[in-house]
Amino acid sequence: MTNSVAANASPDSQRARYCAPLADAVASQAAGSGAAFVRSYEHGEDESGLPAGLASTAFVYDNALAAIALIACGNVASATTIGNALSLAARNDRTFKDGRIRNAYRPGPVSRGPPALPGWWDDKQKLWAEDAAQDGTSTGNVAWAALALLTLHQATKQASYLVDAERLIDWVIGNVSTGSGFRGGFHGYDPQQVKLTWISTEHNVDVYAAATWLSRLTGERKYADAAFQARQFLERAFAVDHFLLGTKPDGSLADPSMLVLDVQLWPWMAIPDAPAQWRSALNFAATHLAVKDGFDFNGDRDGLWVEGTAQASLAYRIASDPHRSAQLLATLEADRTPSGFLNATRGERVSTGLSINPTPAATEADFFYFRRPHLGATAWATLAATAWNPFTGRKVD
Taking Cα atoms as reference points, which of 353, 297, 183, 335 lies closest to residue 251? Predict the structure, then answer.
């Protein structure tokens, strides 16, 4: 399908093109189970399989997005399958009893008890290997899991989803609050993990959205306080016409040269009453992060980041520019794969300027996206196609 044809497709047919692949992925990987995680990546067209570190990996962020997108599609049953897996993960952990959720789990059906973490047999070392980042807990991922459960609660009225969302944000409040923002989380292997002392602008957006939602539903002061703390940090991170990445581990603001796309979009997407000046970050992104047909992850402009371009499509819809929104969504047809999933990148690789090892000891920017079919990118494109704001749980007016 050409971009022009995609742009002229009816809203219903366009939604179907995005919704169906998500539902198919859930059905194929759940194998009839009522609770399952979906693998985040499929192997690329030039690969015979995924690298060991991704082959058994269902990232919580990707699955939370997929659950929300399926609700936006009207497919509550498929969303519930992922939501039930998130709930089980929130209640059960193989090591920790404090209510945390990990950054990733093994894809497929989830039964009672602690969900399995990703891993693989390292034949060279003759041991079972896991990934330190996947075993860790990112504050933003905890908040996204809560947003997915809150979206499911809204759709189903099932009380357990609300209880589990509260459990997750209670963990955030109790374990990563600094009083002036929420720090990164924990990194590393069980049972001793490293505290991440830096603060992420993106994470604080996520916490704000989930805590505000909980405050509205429960009336509990602790959630209003958490939302206030997160918003205060966002105000600190806004620099005239754009948002800074966050802080360094010592609490000082991050290097202004470290520009990231979602940091420019999410704060005002998540906060309907945000200062009007915050929306200048969209123009800033268009000036500093745009590439041909879309947007890069960061300011080096080394390629089109599909997930971020889909985020920008929804952002333009929220900013009352449906024409630009439709343009960006249409161009993503070039990234569709035979399964219906979108590739994570258009070119071979896109850099982020960030490290997979998010600790002070990290010295190399080694976090990249590759041209592989990606659950998260497909979910964001679905949210754009359905005009659904995942931070508020509402369609865009």
Answer: 183
Q: Is the backbone of residue 323 left (phi > 0), alpha (psi -120 to 50) or beta? A: alpha
pTM over 0.85: yes
- For 232, residues 6+ apart whose C-beta sits below 8 A from its C-beta are 180, 181
Contact 117, 135 (CB under 8 A): yes
> Which tens digits make up the pLDDT trace of 125-183?
999 999 999 999 999 999 999 999 999 999 999 999 999 999 999 999 999 999 999 99
What is the identity of the amino acid at 391? Answer: F
Q: Name the 3-class secondary structure at 336.
A: strand
Q: Are the beta carbons of 310 and 325 closer than 8 angstroms?
A: no
Distance of CA 237 to the CA centre of its chain: 20
Cα 9 to chain centroid, rounded: 27
Residues near 239 by beta carbon (within 8 Å), at least 6 away in sequence? 256
Q: Which residue has the tokens 């679905």?
A: 382
CB hemisphere CA count around 285 (13 angstroms): 26
Cβ contacts of 351 within 8 Å, gap of 6 or more: 297, 298, 300, 302, 365, 367, 368
Range of the domain at 273: 3-395
CATH of the domain at 380: 1.50.10.20
Number of domains in the chain: 1
Report the alpha-carbon distance of residue 206 to residue 140 in Å, rounded.
6
